[in-house]
Queue: 4 jobs
Job 1
Amino acid sequence: MSEIPASALPAPARVGRYRWRVCAMLLAATTINYVDRQVLGVLAPFLQTEIGWNEIQYGYIVTAFQGAYALGLLCAGAIIDRFGTRIGYAIAIAVWSLAAMGHALAAGVVGFAVARFALGLGESGNFPAAIKTVAEWFPRRERAFAVGIFNSGSNIGAIIAPLLVPLVAAAWGWQAAFLFTGLLSALWLAIWLLWYRTPEQQPALSRAELELIRSDPAEPTTRIAWKQLLGHRQTWAFVAAKFMTDPIWWFFLFWLPKFLHAEYGLSLLQLGLPLIIIFVLADCGSIAGGWLAGRLLRAGWSVNRARKGAMLVCALAVVPIIFAAGADNLWLAVGLIGLATAGHQGWSANVFTLPSDMFPRRAVASVVGIGGFAGAVSGMLISTFTGFLLQSTGSYVPVFLMAGSAYLLALLVVHLIVPALAPTALGGDAGPPVA
């Protein structure tokens, strides 16, 4: 039998890349999310003078955001599941867009605290909505990459804010900075509502791409109660890691501009370059931390050794920040802080992988939610403590000492709770419950 010429064979269906447009929208939303939340941190040294709040009151304002963020994490998933990603995401970003612009109306501590609380409620919906959207639009083998792309928006936003906000505030006043970033959120919302549909409802999606998106076997959808997850030591290992280290990142976001202004006298426009360098280093650390764990796994290390080995390297990178408060040179301080932010993001990349190392896929999101709630609660406590500390002593030394030691202590606690990162079994199987 003669072979059929290749030119006579039907051309393979072109899969298409529409799903990556959806991912680009998620990246834009996450970037705006972090720009909106960091506007206050960038402007804080100058708002403190103009509005007249003290360190304790600023701590309360930051705590209001974190408290709302923690509460939002408890209910955002249910709201998004109830209304779907199109409307659920729209509700979240509408709330945070209005809240961001509402900062321009604040005239005192209470006004800023109310605006920050509303912003925290809205912004808590971003990651649950984005992760659910990825699950709707991507086959399982592409989801980690898609999540990695949109999650990079957190560092992009942290870089854009100190570049954009001082220019807008210097040209048109601090109120304009809040209005401008809130309008960016509103623009995204309008595009989302006009354009976004689920894959089955999107006419521009090719049949081949829809088949790719739906190519995985059906996943279990049985809801796993938090009570069941809290009975396992693996959950508490992740909670401990988040509780002990998340507040350090909140400190970096909300207090670094104040530190650089207080210690080195930087003006609003001078803050941009040091903050951009710090958060570019953080972005590099995020990539490097994930790469290191993968490299160790490819070298034959066990998941336990590779994950904890990478976490140890990242924890050690944070330790030198203890010298930052006493640095007599701005760029030495920027280098030490940038190394620490890189260490934190590398640490975070590995910590966020712990639930998937230890739990079945259907439980991962719930475990991440529990840990996120713990981290936000801890952030509230540390923000209030930092406000009182700076008001009474004016010294950042204790905060940097805490930051430098938190990661090594957290790694020790994680190792004591789960010495081998043993997987847990749910649904009646024998798992290693908390002793």
Job 2
Amino acid sequence: MPIRLLCLCFSLFFALEPARAADLSTTIAAVKPSIVAIGTSLPTRSPAVIFFGTGWVTGDGLSVITNAHVVSNAIKADQKESLGIVIAGEGNTIAFRAATLAGVDPDHDLAHLRLAGGPPLPALKLGDSATLREGRELALTGFPLGMVLGLHHVTHRATLSAITPIIIPSIGARQLDARAIVQLARPFDIFQLDGTAYPGNSGSPVYDPADGTVYAVINMGFVKGFKEAAITNPSGISYAIPGRYVSALLQRAAQ
């Protein structure tokens, strides 16, 4: 390759990198108002609000999507508590809005909440997850370690590394729990990402860095050893539920 042409290629590469970073910066600012925390509120408790995971607003601005296991953990709490979303503002400012459970898809670990009154929130567009291919650049935003680090939006870049079956191979039958057995009977493909998701990222939207279109929902991190190792020794591998299952859950609520 001629030296002049080689220099031109390098110039184009380095010119594109700042543009990509600028696109993501703009997109993060646009999606943050739509990404909320999922928690419960009890005024007589300290702290009054407890965080369980991340969710994001879609549809008419009153629908919130998160993981089913996030909601399950929340509703196991004291019945006097109110389920809802926590809107993170500037600094330590937060606002709690009550919500009701509109639908659950336990097979794909998804839950649909409906805000109980109040103005609609900015909604994220749900894209066609079937169009994604391995190698696609993506981003995810949520509240990793929310009760430890505070409710501050955190964004990670990620690449769609593989489209793989939901079941993670077990060493032996003793490692198969009831949920894994159900998944063996009804397997489906899941997105494997090279971005690191921490506890608290469950329910985070996985979106296009250029325009914020959501294509998947963070489900779990593949961690080494015990759950606590996700903090000290993350694997760098995460999994996300394709958005087509979100579409199906929302359609059931509309029927």
Job 3
Amino acid sequence: MTEKIDDQELQTSTTPGYNPGEKKTLDEYAQLDSNDESLNKWKASLGIGAGAANENGPKIEFISLSLESATRPEPIVFNFAELEGKKEHIKKNPVSIKEGTEYNVKLDFKVNHDVISGLRYVQVVKRTGMTVDKMEEMVGSYGPSQNPYEKRFATEESPSGMLARGTYSVRSRIVDDDGHIYVDFDWAFKISKEW
């Protein structure tokens, strides 16, 4: 049985005094300080400038969220293109995670025709009605690119021991500085002796 994770628990932290500023278009960014050669090179590296943007598709496409471990031959992968039709399945069928194992979470995504600022990954984990973990990772700010971006989060270790074994409910969300939610889904995992 999966547990409901409230929207309030997925709120991102804020930095006092930080203001993300006014949203600008790619053309507006390209025109800013256009006579500064070093700034123009930096903007080009972000995909800002003439011909750099891919105008097709959504402004950002999330490809996959993966859990990788050196002790597992294949990563556990949530493919976002297939996620919509499988939401109930992944919620009710927990993935197995070996206890006491180091792992990394990896996010693959592509930015098409906008600058995305302050992208964050937030995850809340519950067991028997109690929140046992909240992870908030800054993914960063990105400009358009023909190639996908890859973000790896810090290595973590799964809990171990008899009391840690069991099923956990998870809700994952990807949000930006403007509060726009790109991905929001529930899933579950089971801590066990083996993968």
Job 4
Amino acid sequence: MTTLNADPSELAKFGELAHRWWDTESEFKPLHQINPLRLDWIDQQARLIGKRVVDIGCGGGILSDSMARRGANVLGIDLATKALKVAQLHALEAQTPNIEYREVAAEVLAAEAPGQFDVVTCMEMLEHVPEPASVVRACSALVKPGGWVFFSTINRNARAFLFAIVGAEHVLKMLPKGTHEYARFIRPSELAQWCRDADLDLQATRGMEYNPLTQRYWLSGDTSVNYLLACRKGT
């Protein structure tokens, strides 16, 4: 029997908040705010229209839904049952085209459907699993040669601790306390190495910044806190 690469306490944490995924003023407000930035950046690199996409760790489907509306054929996967049900219900209510959701681990889907996707996205998820490198390998297995894989996560340094935990969870209360665990943050160099080991070629890196006074997010060259990686599978 294969042990799932998931932390039950992390799944429970997001499961308890599932009904609030699509409330843009809830704990998920930051995800709604950054989603247009993520979506545009992914679309610029990979040209989503007509592409087959798998969104790993899709949660309530915020990114999955927006990629489907850009013309991609999207499969969203997660192991948080309640969040997936919310995603499915939202897709029905909003009549989102070309989208489906499944409760399945990335590693299991990779064994089942290797090389079946043009684009793989794995956003804000690696810092919540016990073995992030295993997820990176699964992403590589799922994507076609020449296809795109996108990650976003949080750097591990003093500034990231200050901004992502002290600032976001305790001072500004943008996120519930305990959302993130500092020890699970991932340096860009570590993620880049896992990508290389999995035959993924790093194409671009972007940082994501936030101004609490204007409540505005933007992409930049500063990867010291939140950052995104774009990779392509070797051909």
